[in-house]
Design a protein that fits this description.
mainly beta, OB fold (Dihydrolipoamide Acetyltransferase, E2P), five-stranded antiparallel β-sheet, four-stranded antiparallel β-sheet, DNA binding, LytTR_DNA-bd_dom, phosphorelay response regulator activity
Amino acid sequence: MKRRMNKNCITLYPTESPSPVLWMLHKNKRVRVFLEDIIYLESQANYTIFYLKNGKNIINSRTMGLFENVLGQESFFRVHRSFIVNLNYIDQISIIKHTSGIIELSNGKQIFLSRRKIKPFLEEFANCEESNPQVSIQITNHPFAA
């Protein structure tokens, strides 16, 4: 499971703990991030911001696409061109049928679910063994109430 991304200073290692570790550069230092600590990733231009469960943020100068490839085999899903979420931190899913959706995470953040990602996301979420079984999923035919 050891993966190296050439020249990109990003390495995913298995560990003795249940969660693999992601090593990357942050402020010219190598930092270790357990995948279980990542709630979601946000893309901002050519930077990716990691939001962790301890409330800290890590900014990396790599694009979201690189991390999508690295995290693809784990419990992460790209729900929008600007967001990758950890499926284990989802509290609620609200979907307007065939239009769009909103995912609410355990830290209270609401993330937009793109129309094209609805079906693959629901399939992946259903297959995720570690996801929270108490997640509320609402599918409506009308826009969300303001």
